[in-house]
Amino acid sequence: MINIVWLFLWFLAFVSIVIKLLLGDYKTISTFVDSLFNAAELGFEISLGLTGILTLWLGLLKVAEKSGLTNLIAKVISPLIRALMPEIPKNHSSIAPLTLNMVANILGLDNAATPIGLKAMKELQKINPDKNSLSNAQIMFLVINSSSVTLIPITIIVYRAQLGASNPTDVLLPIIVATYSSTLVGILTTAFIQRINIFNKAILSLFTISFITISLTVFLLTNLPSKTVEKVTVAFSNVFIASIIFFILLYSIIKGKDSYSDFVEGAKEGFSVAVMIIPYLVAMLIAIAAFRASGTLNYILDVLKTAVHWVGLDDRFVDALPTAFLKPLSGSGARAMMIDTIKTFGADSLVGRMVSVMQGSTETTFYVLALYTGAVGIKNVRYAIVPALSADIAGITTAIIVTYLLFE
Asked: Is the model's pTM score more than 0.85?
C-alpha cells in the first residue's frame, strides 16, 4: 500500500510537470528540483531531532517495565481488557503485552508500540479458534490500536518545535479530544458488531469518566479568551508530561531498582529507532514535495475549496485534508504531509495546528491491519476495516471541529 501511494504521488507530479513543459512553463521544473533537495535535507534534520526524544521516552518506558509499573497497570486495566475482549481467559499471557502496547501508544511512541503489539497479536493467535481469520478479540485489539488513543504525542510536539511553533505543546489537549473520539467510535462500532455489553461496569465507568472530563474541559476552554486557552493548554501539557516522568522514576526508586541502568538499556533502542526512521521519512517527504511543487496538490485543493465555499463553509480546513487522506494509508506519508503543510502555512497557523491534531487523532489503519495480520499469517480480516475506518472518520472530523473551536 505504501509503495502504491508513493509511486502515485510521483506519477501525478510527473504528468503535471510534462504538461507545464509542453505549455512553455520552464520555471516550474527549477522549483521542482529545488524542492526535492530541500525536502531531503529537512527529512534528515527532523529524523535526527527525534533521536533525543525517542531515547528519553523509550528509556522511561524501560524503567517502568523493569520496576513492575507496567504489570501494575496491566492488573488495573485487566478488567477493562477482558470486558472488551471476553474471549481472553483470566490472567492470559496476552494481557501484559496488550497493556504495554496501550501504554506505548498513550505516550505517543508509535515505533515502540509496534513490536509490543506484534507480541500481543501472536499471544491472541494462540487462542484463536480459526487460525486463518481474525478472532473477535484480535479485531477489537486492532481497532483500538488503529484508533491510537494518545495522551502524549511526543513526536508531534518535537516536529512542531523544530518547525518553529511558539508553543509546541498547545495541540496536546485537542489531540486528546480527537483521539478519544476516534477510539470511542471504534470501540462502540466493534462492540455493536460483536454484541458486547457496553454497559459492563468497567466499560461504562471508563467511558463515563472520560466523556465527562473531556466535555467539561472543552466547554471551559471554548468559553475562555484565545490567549488564555493557549496558556492553559500549554501549562496543562507541561504539568501532565512532567508528572508522568516523575511518577515513573519515583515508582522505580520505591521498588529499589537501578533506574539509571534500566533507562540506558531502553535509551539504546531509542537511538536505533530514530536512525531507522530517516530513509522512510526522506522518501515520503521528497515525493510529497514533488507532488506539491508540480502544482498537482494545489489543483486538487482548489477544486475542493471551490466546492466547500459554494456551500457557504470556511474553506481553510481543506488545506489540512491531504494529511487526513493519507493517514489511513501511510503513517510516514501522513507524517511527511503534516511536516510539509506546517512548513508551508506555519506551525502556529490554523492549518498548521489542524494537521498536527489530525496526525495525533488516529493511527495508520491499513498499515496496522497489514502488519499485524501478516505477523500471524491471517488473510481474512472479516469486518475489521469497518470499525477502523469509522474511528478514522470520527478522529479527523473531531480534529477539524476542535481546532476551529480552540484556535479560531
From this structure: no
